[in-house]
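Example record for the data management plan.
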Amino acid sequence: MFLVRIWREPFDPRAAPKIAQQLLIQVETVKDGKQHYFGSFEQMLAFFQAWFERPSNR
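Corresponding structural encoding:
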């Protein structure tokens, strides 16, 4: 089981003027409390795919 938090934080316009906000995603594994952070949905989905493909997690 996972707890997923998704939010946006202000992005420094001097660093990237075309980006107004930065997406942040936190995935916490409830069983052990480990937290993983991602900057896109694609990264999060790749994490889930790899996690579910491990035999120990089936």
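Summary line stored alongside the record: The CA atoms of residues 9 and 22 lie 5 Å apart.
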